[in-house]
Amino acid sequence: MADVDVIAVLQEAIAGGGPLWLQVLLRVAGAFGMALVPLVSVVFLIWESRKVIARMQDRLGPTNAETPAGPWAIFQTVADAIKILTKELIIPEGADKVVFIIAPVLVVAVAIAMWAVIPLGPPETGLQVVDLEIGAFYVVAIGSLAPFSMIMAGWSSRNKYADVGAFRAVSQIIGYEIPQIMSLLVPVLLAGSMSLQEIVASQDVAYAISVPLVALVYFLAMLAEVGKLPFELAEADSELVAGYFTEYSGMMFGAFYLGEFINAFTGSVVFSLLFLGGWRGPFVDVVPWLGPVYLLVKAFLVFNVMNLFWASMPRLRIDQVLAFNWKALVPMGLVVFLVVALTDKLMWRAGVPEGWARAAGLLLSNVVVGGATALLLVWYKRRLMRRRAARFAPAAVPAKAEA
Question: Domain spans of the chain?
Answer without folding.
Answer: 25-386
